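Our example copied in:
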Amino acid sequence: MDNLKWTDVPDIAIELFEKHEDVDPRYIRFTDLHKWVMALEGFNDDPDRSNEKILEAIQMAWIEEADLD
């Protein structure tokens, strides 16, 4: 996926799910989540535009993608 932004929550969740299959997103720290999103291929947004609300939305979407709820 090219040109991902912080607002592309569902797409980010899919990318994280595919890249980190062995990780249970229910237990990830937001600091790690932030780093992993920034490291995604095609992610192109300002690191300072994220906040706790966005990271929580990404985490919840990732949990849903992993079907852990």
Q: What stands out?
A: The two ends are 26 Å apart (CA to CA).
